[in-house]
Amino acid sequence: MFEAQRKVRADVGEAINGFDILLTPTLPCTALPHSTRTTLSEGVTIDQFRDQYMSLYQFQGVFNITGQPSVSLPLFHDGEGLPVGIQIVARFGDEATLVRVARDLEQALPWSARRPPVFAAPR
């Protein structure tokens, strides 16, 4: 397992090395209302939940494995007011560029005061 992780880290690091940053979506879809996918959903097995979870967080997973600096920002929103995020990934050891780009985007598209509608899980 550690050898596979080392290879992924080396391959991804080499692929991004020629760029200052890499931009990806945070999720492959807009944010989901709370309680959309839970292990408590009726009829959902733990294997189904795991598969859904893995597909939902596919863009973050690789950088959790490589350990590259990354940040996700909810810079946009959909028609229902739910956040649409971007993930910024920097080269190994280049947290300064990551923080600088994130700061500049936050200043250009402020999001901290935005609040999506409240969704509550059904009882």
From TrEMBL:
Amidase domain boundaries: 4-98
Pfam families: Amidase
Lineage top rank: taxon: Bacteria
InterPro entries per UniProt: Amidase, Amidase_dom, AS_sf
GO molecular function: catalytic activity
Transmembrane parts of this sequence: none
Gene3D superfamilies: Amidase signature (AS) domain
Similarity remark: Belongs to the amidase family.
Protein name: Amidase
Native source organism of the sequence: Mesorhizobium plurifarium
